[in-house]
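Sample 3 of the quickstart, ligand flavin-adenine dinucleotide:
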Amino acid sequence: MHPVREKVQLSPNVTRLVVEAPRIAEIRQPGQFVIVHLGPGAERIPLTIADGDAVAGTITLVIQSVGKSTADLVALEVGQAIIDIAGPLGRPTELIGSGRAVCVGGGVGTAVVHPIAQGLAARGVAVTSIIGGRSREWVIFEEELRRYGDVVVCTDDGSYGRHGFVTDALRDLLDAGGVDEIYAVGPVPMMRAVSELTRPYGVPTMVSLNAIMVDATGMCGGCRVSVGGKTVYACVEGPEFDAHKVDFRELADRLTTYRSFEQAALERQQQVHVAKMAALAAEAPVGEMGADFMRPPTGLPEASR
Ligand SMILES: Cc1cc2nc3c(=O)[nH]c(=O)nc-3n(C[C@H](O)[C@H](O)[C@H](O)COP(=O)(O)OP(=O)(O)OC[C@H]3O[C@@H](n4cnc5c(N)ncnc54)[C@H](O)[C@@H]3O)c2cc1C
Ligand code: FES
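Result:
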C-alpha cells in the first residue's frame, strides 16, 4: 500500500500527489515511470516519477485528469492509499555530461521534464527550461525548474510570461546558438513541432512518448511506436526517443484507438455520481449505490501530455 502524504492542486486539472514508495524513491532515475494501480477493478496506468525523496521515502506524481483512472487518482485525499505502484520502469534518460541543454515542457509534460532538468543540473550541465500553458493558471512547475537554471514561461494568450508557443522561445535560443541537446515533453503536436523546428539546426532532440501502455513489460505490444522505420516498444525501449526519427502521425492515430471505450468509462462514472447525489438528496442509503469515488470526474479534455 502507498499512502498519499501530500496533495496539491497545481492547475485547473493537474494535481500533485506525494506518495510513499521508499524503494522506488531510492533507485529512480530521470525519465523513468511507474505503473499505478489504484485498487481492485481499476486500470493500471503509467505515470512519470516527477520527483522523489529517498530520505522521506516518497515519490511525486503529477497527474492531469483526462479520464476515469486519472480522475479517480486525483480524488484521493491525504491518508488514503494506492494499492500498488510498480517501478521504476523504462530506460533512464541519456543525459549529456557537459554543455548546455534546453528542457521544453508543455502542460503536464512540464512535470515530466522536471527530473531530466534535475539530472542534468546534477551533472553540471547548464539548463534552460522553456515551459508553456494556455494561460497563467495552466503553468506548472516554474518554481521547481528555477532551481536548475533559467526558465522562460510562454502562454498562448500572453497572460503570463512571453506571449506565444514554446517553439517561438526555442527558435530564439537556437538562433543564438550554443545549444547541445533538447529534451521536449508535452502533447504530441507540441513534440512534433519541436522536432520539426530543431531538425534543420541539427541539434539532437529527445522526446518522451505517451504511448498507450498495458503491461509495461514489452509483452503486449500496446505501446509500439515507429522510430527510424523500426517498430519499438516504448515501455521497455523508451519512453524517450530521438525526436527526428519518431513517426508522430502514427503515434497520434494509435492514441485515439480506444477513445470510444474511454468516453464510455467516463460517462458511466458520471452517471454513478449523479445517482449517488440523487440518493443522498433523497436520504437513501449511499451504500446501495455502489459509489467508488468521492467527487465528480472532470470532462475529457484534449491530449493528455
Ligand atoms: C511513460 C508514460 C508516462 C506518463 N506520465 C504521465 C504523467 O506523469 N502525468 C499524467 O498526467 N499523465 C501521464 N501519462 C499519460 C497517462 O498515463 C494517461 O493520461 C492515463 O493513462 C489516462 O487514463 P484515464 O483512464 O484517466 O483516461 P482515458 O479516458 O482512459 O484516456 C485518455 C487518454 O489518455 C491516454 N491513455 C489512456 N490509457 C492509457 C494508458 N494505459 N497508457 C498511456 N496512455 C493512456 C490516451 O491518449 C487517451 O486518449 C503518461 C503516459 C506514459 C506512456
Ligand atoms: S505496454 Fe505492453 S509492450 Fe509496452
